[in-house]
Specification:
Length: 102
């Protein structure tokens, strides 16, 4: 039992900040992205989806919950470290959106 818990802990640590990494290297259109604290936002969205009774997954939802709970504070740290990149990026994308709407 102790080995299983150790392996699960290592897996969680390897996925640390995964939300941040996934959102910063996302291939979606930059106009559709949120940059500042995007990893935490993604984790919160996943938690909301886990507790939504209408959402259907191919695995039981309880499997993802521990990973997301561990990832939230780690993504918050990674998002904070990435702020010097994400804030200017968010400002430039916002300026482009405003130009196109005029």
């Amino acid at each position: 039992m102790k080995k299983i818990l150790t392996v699960l802990l290592l897996i969680c640590l390897l996925l640390a900040g995964c939300g941040t990494i996934m959102t910063l290297r996302d291939d979606r259109d930059p106009k559709e992205r949120t940059y500042v604290y995007s990893g935490v936002r993604m984790d919160c969205f996943v938690v909301k989806e886990i507790f939504d009774p209408e959402t259907v997954y191919f695995l039981p939802k309880w499997i993802a919950l521990p990973f997301v709970v561990v990832d939230v504070p780690l993504s918050a740290c990674a998002d904070t470290v990435c702020l010097p990149y994400t804030i200017p990026k968010a400002i430039s994308v916002d300026k482009k959106r405003k130009k196109k709407s005029l």
